[in-house]
Design goal:
The chain is α+β, with helices and mostly antiparallel strands. The protein has one domain (about 5-180). The protein contains 6 helices and 5 strands. A 5-stranded antiparallel β-sheet has the order 3-1-2-5-4, with helices on one face. The longest helix has 18 residues, at about 50-65. The chain is globular.
Length: about 180
């Protein structure tokens, strides 16, 4: 069974999603993060939010074409299995772990690697998982074939994929876990 992990900074709490905010507010928050020069998000450039919006729409459309049933217009972000590297992204790192069996898999899509390099025109290595979104059953097959990137590419020397990203297109069971764990 696969577990989905969500990494976050304890100071702000889990599932704080820039995509849930109006663009101007999201930009202000990203600008504040960049000004602090703290954590991985501070390295994101000015084009980040527009590209993120574009990729989220693309992933949602591709997921629907594969029979996915997203409820949210933007996803919550998680990763398949633990990825210790993501703990380095935050000053006061923490994570939540939720078994995939708690999710309706019709509301969870996956990319083999982060969505940004997966859909980047600059990454032209011919790997079969570029420019693709997967359903749960498909990502399990891909993991059986290639393994977890966080195991074979822990330091990023073999390409941009360092984890399998899960795009969760529903608030369930996330809201329940946040309530149970006293977060937010």
């Amino acid at each position: 069974m696969i577990y989905l992990y969500h990494y976050f900074d304890r100071r702000t709490g889990p599932f704080r999603n820039l995509s849930d905010l109006p663009q101007a507010r999201a930009k202000d928050i990203l600008d504040a993060i960049r000004a602090k020069q703290e954590g991985f998000a501070s390295q994101r450039d000015g084009a980040y939010l527009a590209r993120r919006t574009e990729l989220e729409q693309l992933a949602r459309e591709m997921f629907i074409k594969k029979g996915g049933k997203p409820i949210r217009t933007v996803p919550h972000y998680m990763v398949a299995e633990a990825c210790p590297w993501l703990l380095t992204w935050y000053r006061e790192a923490d994570c939540m772990k939720i078994p995939i069996t708690d999710f309706d898999t019709d509301t969870v899509s996956f990319t083999y690697g982060d969505m940004f390099p997966t859909f980047s025109p600059r990454v032209n290595d011919g790997r079969e998982y570029r420019y693709k979104v997967y359903r749960y059953e498909e990502i399990v097959e891909l993991i059986e074939r290639y393994g977890l990137p966080q195991r074979w590419n822990e330091d990023g020397r073999y390409g941009p994929e360092r984890y399998i990203e899960a795009q969760v297109w529903s608030d369930e069971p996330i809201e329940r876990y946040i309530e149970t764990h006293g977060q937010r």
